[in-house]
Structures are given as structure tokens and as C-alpha cells.
Amino acid sequence: MTQQTNFLESLLQFPCSFPIKALGKATEDLQVLVVEIIQRYCSDALPASAVTTRPSHSGNYIAVTVTIAAQNQQQLDGIYLALTRNEKIVMVF
Fold first, then answer.
1. How far apart are CA 44 and CA 27, in angstroms?
2. Extents of the domains making up the chain
């Protein structure tokens, strides 16, 4: 483990509820894409109530927030890496 991972794990007590937000161009499939990527790293199915979307003021972008039951820092790292590698996703936070 890296020093940064140790520090982050000391801030969070796993398992915990953790929201992940991805921002991308406003397309019909962005929400499905984000949920599919995150679902790969979750053992349980994500309920519809775990997913919210919000369009930008101009309507050009959409933010998709998915709240998961995070099990460990490695799970979160994998999700963030997979999301940031996708060209349809502009930003992850």
C-alpha cells in the first residue's frame, strides 16, 4: 500500500456509503455507461435509488451520481480509474 492509500483509508471506515459523481456530455447513454462501469466493482446490484442525474445549467453536460456501499480503498481506486479512462466521461469526483 502506498502512503496516500494508508492516509485515505484512515479517513474512511469501510464498509461505508460513498457517492461517486461522473460528469460527461449530455447523451442518453451516459447514465447507463456510468452505472455499468461502477457495477463491475460492486458485488451487489445497484438499486435505482442509488443513481441520480443532474443536467448542467446549459444542458450540454450531465452529472451522474451513484452511491455505493464501498468495501475498501482498492474498490474505489478501481472505479475511479475505470471511469477516468472512458473518453465519454469528462470528470470524476
1. 26
2. 3-92
